[in-house]
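G., before I forget:
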Amino acid sequence: MEGDLAHIGAGLAAIGSGAAAIGVGTVAGNYLAGALRNPSAAASQTATLFIGLAFAEALGIFAFLVSLLLMFAV
Amino acid sequence: MAGEASEEGGLVFHPLDQFIVKPLFGDGAISFYTLTNVTLWLAIAVLAAALVFVWGTSGRKIVPGRLQSVAESIYGFVYKMVEDVCGKDGIKYFPYIMTLFLFILFANYLALLPMSYSPTSMIAITAVLGFGVFIVVTVLGFVLNGPSFLGMFWMKDAPAVLRPIIAVIEVISYFVRPVSHSIRLAGNVMAGHAVIKVFAGFAALTLVSPVAILGITAIYGLEVLVAGIQAYVFTILTCVYLKDALHPHH
């Protein structure tokens, strides 16, 4: 079957989504740990939280895109 | 296409078919003036945003009704965000940021209707938004600060040996900004919609269909969240980039 290697590559690229999950978890977990220690400062840092989440998540999305490209465009 | 291989045993997976651009009338070639499902949903998003704000605030009641309080709280939310991130002198650019936020928010939420098309899942559309922000911010930086805008790339706090290396990295990361800015939005929306369609494909199997339908419901709830968060993230990153142009030395 043609395109077998591309499928393997797509699966390998999908590992990147898991790596992004680690990143997102680290950001959110550290925010929560900090917020529980000092709840009064938590509200002022939500914007930073979302920026951090977005940066971490974007790399997972890149991995997903590479996987899609390998599945449907190569 | 590698998608044909999975059509065995009643399972039909075409998670990406929902992103095909089709002409509304007939099926001729698509050129830049053809009315397609993309232009239809772009127009609906723009009209809906205009409707909520023009019609919603037309009464100007002291005690706002439902639509007026929605419009007022969105306005207040974005205004506060611009003020918090960019400072007082960023307020001048509030209309631009408000427009971006409203367009992305309405396009994202309308895309969650069944059978709709999601304009923000097209990289062509989000790239226009992302590169638009990039060009605006870069031009604004040079107009407001002159050549000293380039000082943004030269970290004075870093050790002298590291400064050229950091400058190269900073320049690269500056030029990657519009790419990640636009792909983040398109990728998130596209990934979410594709996941819903994959679960919908599993719903064709009688054995797992209850689980699949529960899964669709859960993912749909997540997508409602993601639609709002991605509009917020796109806007707040625009504010952050704008802050760099207004105050490059902080």
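Chain B is about 65% helix and 0% strand. Chain B has one domain: 3-246.

More on Monday.
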